[in-house]
Design brief:
Length: about 800
């Protein structure tokens, strides 16, 4: 009898138990039960969740919603803490309003649902009425109202259009050789986007490192958008600044900004899988110098190592690494070598022995080290989430730094293992802080880059290291430049690279570029030439190609192509003062170097058009219109204002679609009217001194403008102690005046005079410089110039 009774009870209990274990329907946050103000947050308890709204600044809020008690608060991306910017909480029967100096959050009580408004009352973004936040198993999703004209920008290194509406994306760092131009996901996970609708903008950063999904109205019949995380908390930051530039500034304040890279890394970089032995490396270097093609960097890909063992050298191919880098340095080259995370399983190999002895590798739950195969064969993978491992990894770079390597190329760090399916149960972290692959996968590349950057910075005696990575997560800009992985030698890839680079820029990462010329496959002469001309206007300018491709050095396509490409690379070196100033701006306020037109012309529909979406600004005053290599002329769009073709000085009124010639030796690039562009003489590498004359190009326009010129030693961190030279240059057409401010900072500029080059100043033939008269000399069709000394004093030019 007793047994039958327990069986009956078990049967009664079972269905609901089964339901609990395997949820078939979503669970919602439910009704608000209580609200409590804290110093920098508002705690909200609901039927099924705990929510907390924190303020970080007047324009940055954070929303954290959990079903269970909130876990320990940690982030790999965010470097700021909440602060008290919540002003006021007004409570009503059905809602409450939480106010900062710039934002209002309407908190609906049944169910909990948040609506974000600016101070004027415009809705910036709101959670979806009816089903705002819910859980399906461990997956948590936030659904949001989709505005009829809403556009979506950002998400980092994604394929697809500039406006990502109508598409959905996944973040799960993936090694996809020869990826298709619509493939997703790729190498980076940056779960941050910017929404644009009506006359408002907002930003959202979902700080969850598990697999995240973003749906910008795909398959929802355009009724709502959503974002979700496979497990963990709904943890998103809301950015309410009123401009896209303001949102990027806030996002990069929250997740950190690029540190100034070494100046040489802005030069032209030559790579190939792989240059070896030493004689080939030296031959490539010599060819650049003999042919007078400027170049700063040569790379060693995986074949410089002994059996692909990280931190080793193949002694036959490179018997004297230090001697070789010494010779390269003497010729003005810097050496970058690749490092992959996989450590070859081989007793007697120091990295393997040390890693095993100290428990530094990722493990299965039973404590055995995970093994996956990569280039060296069977490998263990360092657990970069542990500080001790990062220190060890960082210190191991002495084997590269001592022989003179200055750049560190972090590859295969998605992490990649043949088969691309590292089991989710692989574990990281130490006792009490363990996490599975599901949480660590997307930050593995970030933490490897961090270990590399911190380690090499410590080893380089005050010199700036250059770090490059393939994989990353939000915040990667703090440690590394990013290249866009294994692309192909096609026009589509070349044009896509403009969107990937500007997409990364919209998402906080400024120092970026593709493999110029295409990694896989052989570009035609035309494609190679065109892509090199785009490389000039790409923050990271590196030519790279796979082992089974033809040579892609600038001379590989014959004398005709060589002459064109040489002129292009020379243009890059002329522009270095301008490019370096753009890098500085990025390090200071997060504004990317390659800027989508959506940043400045956010509400101009045409910048999102399929035909024009690849155009971008390179720095503040140059507009680049990428054109496929098969087009000799192209219809492009010039946004409002005025624009001068850089190569001919031809003037175009903006806000217009124009057809322009686009021969292979002349990519359509335009200087902004009222824009200021500093340039220098051509040098063969950045350790060579340019002439002491700074070419200051000013393009006439009717708008007042200001430009910040920046210079420092380009090598050390002394600029942090004030050793820089910064000048504000203002152009005031109504007062017919250009002013160069006195320098700020204690760095002595390499330029002791200025050649002021005026473009489009038709009737101007004489100027005064601090009261002294100069007659302008003709330079080009519509270019007139005068040269005068540049001292510690301000300069006032009247025309
Ligand atoms: C990966 C990298 C590529 C590199 C190759 C060999 O495919 O993305 O850039 O050349 O590995 O190391």
């Amino acid at each position: 009898m007793k047994n039958i009774l327990s069986l009956l009870i078990a049967l009664m209990v079972m269905p609901s138990f089964t339901l609990l274990a395997q949820p078939r329907l979503p669970v919602f946050t439910g009704k608000v039960k209580s609200m409590a103000r804290k110093e920098a947050s508002l705690l909200v308890k609901t039927e099924n969740s705990t929510a907390e709204i924190y303020s970080y600044s007047p324009t940055i809020l954070r929303i954290r919603i959990t079903r269970n008690e909130p876990a320990e608060d940690a982030s790999y991306a965010v470097i700021q803490k909440p602060a008290s910017f919540l002003r006021d909480l007004q409570e009503f029967r059905d809602s409450a309003i939480l106010v900062t100096d710039s934002l209002k959050v309407i908190i609906h009580r049944n169910p909990l649902r948040l609506v974000f408004r600016n101070m004027k009352g415009d809705v910036l973004s709101e959670e979806q009425p009816g089903f705002p936040v819910s859980w399906l198993g461990t997956e948590v999703t936030c659904y949001r109202k989709l505005f009829a004209d809403e556009k979506f920008l950002g998400l980092g290194e994604k394929t697809g259009n500039l406006d990502k509406r109508g598409n959905s994306y996944v973040n799960w760092n993936s090694d996809i050789p020869a990826y298709k131009t619509n493939h997703d996901p790729l190498y980076q996970s940056i779960p941050f986007f910017i929404g644009v609708h009506g006359k408002v903008v907002y930003g959202i950063f979902l700080d969850n490192t598990t697999l995240t999904k973003f749906n910008f109205g795909a398959s929802t019949d355009e009724q709502f958008s959503s974002f979700s995380a496979a497990e963990g908390e709904m943890n998103y930051y809301f950015f309410g600044s009123s401009t896209v530039a303001g949102i990027i500034r806030d996002y990069t304040w929250l997740t950190g900004r690029m540190q100034m890279p070494p100046y040489w890394s802005l030069g032209y970089q030559q790579c190939r899988w792989s240059y070896f032995p030493e004689s080939q490396v030296m031959n490539i270097a010599q060819q650049f110098r003999d042919r007078k093609i400027p170049c700063d960097v040569i790379y060693l890909d995986i074949d410089y190592m002994d059996a692909y063992k990280i931190f080793t050298w193949n002694k036959e191919r490179f018997p004297d690494p230090k001697g070789m880098t010494g010779k390269l340095n003497d010729m003005g080259f810097h050496l970058v070598t690749i490092v992959d995370p996989g450590i070859k399983v081989e007793k007697g190999y120091f990295a393997y022995d040390e890693g095993v002895a100290n428990g530094y590798f990722a493990k299965y739950p039973n404590g055995t080290n995970y093994i996956g195969s990569v280039w060296p064969g069977r490998c263990h993978f360092p657990d970069f989430t542990q500080e001790a491992v990062r220190k060890w990894w960082g210190a191991s770079f002495n084997r590269l730094v001592d022989p003179g390597v200055e750049g560190f190329w972090n590859d295969m760090n998605e992490p990649s293992a043949w088969g691309q399916s590292i089991p989710d149960i692989v574990q990281f972290g130490t006792e009490g802080q363990k996490a599975s692959m599901t949480r660590v996968h997307n930050i593995y590349g970030l933490e490897m880059s961090r270990a590399t950057f911190e380690g090499t910075k410590a080893l380089m005696n005050g010199k700036r290291p250059f770090v490059l990575t393939r994989a990353g997560y939000a915040g990667i800009q703090r440690y590394s430049a990013v290249w866009t992985g294994d692309n192909e030698a096609t026009d589509e890839h070349m044009l896509l690279s403009a969107r990937m680079v500007t997409g990364l820029g919209l998402s906080g990462v400024s120092f970026t570029g593709p493999d110029v010329g295409g990694f896989m496959g052989n570009p035609s002469e035309e494609l190679y030439t065109r892509w090199m001309s785009m490389g000039v206007y790409t923050p990271f300018f590196r030519n790279h190609s796979a082992w089974d491709t033809k040579s892609k050095e600038p001379w590989s396509f014959g004398a005709g192509v060589e002459a064109k490409v040489k002129a292009m690379i020379e243009q890059r070196y002329r522009l270095l003062p301008y490019i370096y100033s753009a890098f500085r701006e990025s390090a200071v306020n997060g504004m990317p170097v390659a800027r989508s037109l959506a940043i400045q012309y956010t509400f101009d529909e045409k910048v999102y058009w399929w035909k024009y979406q690849n155009e971008y600004l390179f720095g503040e005053n140059l507009l680049v219109a990428p054109v496929s290599c098969t087009q000799g002329a192209e219809k492009i769009y010039l946004p409002e204002g005025g624009w001068y073709r850089l190569s001919t000085d031809e003037f175009y009124k903006g806000g217009a679609e124009v057809i322009v010639e686009a021969p292979l030796n002349d990519l359509p690039v335009f200087a902004r009217a009222s824009g200021i562009i500093p340039m220098q003489s051509v040098i063969q590498h950045t350790s060579q001194k340019p002439s002491s004359v700074l070419d200051l190009h000013v393009y006439n326009g009717d708008r007042k403008s200001a430009y910040t010129y920046y210079e420092d030693d380009g090598v050390t961190y002394q600029f942090e102690n004030g050793q820089f030279c910064q000048r504000m240059i203002t152009f005031d057409p109504s007062a017919r005046r250009i002013i160069i401010s006195a320098p700020e900072g204690s760095f002595g500029s390499k330029f002791t005079s200025v050649a002021l080059i005026l473009h489009g100043f038709r009737d101007t033939r004489d100027i005064t410089v601090n009261g002294i008269s100069y007659t302008l000399k003709m330079k080009g069709r519509d270019q007139w110039f005068a040269e005068f000394p540049l001292t510690g004093e301000p300069v006032e030019i009247r025309y």
